[in-house]
Design goal:
By secondary structure, the chain is mostly helical. The protein has helices at 8-22, 33-43, 55-65, 68-82. The mean pLDDT is 83.
Length: 96
């Protein structure tokens, strides 16, 4: 609905912008959330206007830093280990 959150072209633009900012003569690495958000927004185009341009980047950072997919895999594996024969496991997810 908002575009593919794993958009490799947008991810590359964001990574390049961060690297260029850190180069000598560049503006320097962002020091605040607002600076980082503005940098991300400057390199993600109008195709992301349904939500703030930096939202997906902050989400990706949170997912990586919290190892959310690893936690999900571990939780599902643990639930299957505890499951009684013919039992059921449900997984609810939410995307905003």
């Amino acid at each position: 609905e908002y575009s593919d959150p794993s958009d490799p072209h947008a991810a590359r633009r964001v990574a390049d912008a961060i690297c260029l900012a850190r180069l000598p003569g560049g503006p320097g690495a962002p020091k605040t959330t607002k600076e980082f958000s503005d940098l991300v927004a400057s390199c993600r185009g109008y195709e992301y206007q349904a939500m703030h341009a930096a939202k997906a980047t902050f989400q990706a950072l949170r997912i990586h830093l919290n190892d959310e997919f690893g936690q999900l895999r571990g939780g599902v594996a643990a639930s299957l280990d505890m499951l009684k024969p013919n039992g059921r496991v449900g997984v609810l997810t939410w995307k905003h």
